[in-house]
Design a protein that fits this description.
The chain is α+β, with helices and mostly antiparallel strands and 329 residues long. It has two domains: 8-132, Histidine kinase-like ATPase, C-terminal domain (Heat Shock Protein 90), CATH 3.30.565.10; 142-325, Phosphatase 2c, domain 1 (4-Layer Sandwich). 29% of the residues lie in helices and 30% in strands. It contains eight helices and 15 strands. Strand 9 and strand 10 (227-233) form a beta hairpin. Helix 5 (178-192) crosses helix 6. The longest helix is centred in the first third of the chain and has 22 residues, at 35-56. The radius of gyration is 19 Å and the shape is globular.
Length: 329
């Protein structure tokens, strides 16, 4: 069973796929306190975005859904590798539906959404984020967004991620795939959900919690005013991007739950405009996907989704967590 913070990916290339996507979205939204009006808005959003994939993306595309907490809501990401939108500003005007989808147009999708973002590149594709989240989001010291999807064909996800109230962020990769990896990832998340003030101590808590499980690798970063403190065990990728220049943060060798030793803590400045990327090993060339795709300044969840689309390296569970300084552009 997929955890609530995992995106549900639905490939959409024809009308039958869209019917499956709408039913999946409706089932997800039914368990979230959105009210009838919020659920109706979400259905219209999914229907329009999915119809656009059927009509305009030659190879179809992907819709990804997940529930949101604090405040409650639901998120839809729409990804394709189509021709792109030549003039996004025009496409977002009210009434600019052309032969798009249900005739609502992207302008209507934006109005139906409580949160909306679009990124399109000619000959690379289009990515759209739409949220139905009626209560306002709380201001934070940094913006965070993640996309986590299971390996194709798997009913469980062996990756994990979380961001705690005190500014600790982590990405976890349970060894292998399927239920044993998922159990390890969930145990690691639970071990640090209460918050830690030291990333090495957070990894130590995971190490103890994972004894007797499949084991996992993980990276944790504590983001405080002006400073990042980072520690990692295993092959979780970590890249700090400052002024467009990536710096890779290094992790210690080992497996949490087995042979991991206390990881050294790296300290780096955390300044306006900085972005930290954490990702599991199902993705490669993540820094290049971020800088080359000109993703700086995007909603972090949309940036994570584009990285997932453009930087997948092998068949695996995949997770990207994007953390952007709140004073960034």
């Amino acid at each position: 069973m997929l955890p609530a913070h995992c995106h549900l990916p639905i490939a959409v290339a024809q009308a039958g796929d869209l019917a499956v996507a709408r039913a999946t979205a409706a089932e997800l939204a039914a368990d979230i306190p959105l009210g009838a009006e919020g659920r109706h808005r979400f259905d219209l959003i999914v229907a329009e975005l999915g119809s656009n994939l059927v009509r305009h993306a030659a190879q179809g595309g992907m819709l990804l859904f997940r529930r949101l907490d604090d405040p409650a809501g639901v998120e839809c990401l729409c990804l394709d590798r189509g021709p792109g939108i030549a003039d996004p500003a025009t496409a977002l005007r009210d009434g600019e539906s052309g032969d798009h989808g249900l005739g609502l147009g992207l302008g209507a999708v934006r109005r139906l959404s409580d949160g909306f973002a679009l990124h399109s590149t000619p000959d690379t594709g289009t990515a759209i984020l739409a949220r139905v989240q009626p209560a306002p989001r709380r201001p934070a010291d940094f913006a965070a967004g993640a996309v986590m999807v299971p390996m194709a064909g798997q009913a469980d996800c062996g990756d994990g991620w979380l961001v705690t109230a005190n500014g600790m962020a982590a990405v976890i990769d349970g060894l292998g795939h399927g239920e044993p990896a998922s159990l390890a990832a969930r145990a690691a998340e639970a071990a640090i959900a209460g918050g830690h003030d030291n990333p090495a101590a957070a990894l130590g808590a995971m190490h103890l919690a994972l004894r007797g499980t499949r084991g996992a690798v993980a990276a944790a970063a504590l983001l405080t005013e002006g400073q990042i403190r980072f520690a990692g065990i295993g092959n979780i990728g970590a890249v700090l991007i400052r002024a467009g220049v990536p710096t890779h943060l290094t992790s210690a060798w080992g497996v949490l739950g087995y042979n991991a030793r206390r990881a050294p803590v790296q300290v780096a400045p955390w300044s306006p405009g900085d972005v930290l990327l954490l990702h599991s090993d199902g993705l490669g060339h993540v820094a290049e996907a971020f800088t080359g795709g000109r993703l700086h300044g995007l909603d972090p969840a949309l940036a994570a989704a584009i990285i997932l689309r453009d930087a997948a390296s092998r068949l695996d569970d995949r997770t990207v967590l994007v953390l952007a300084h709140a004073a960034g552009p």
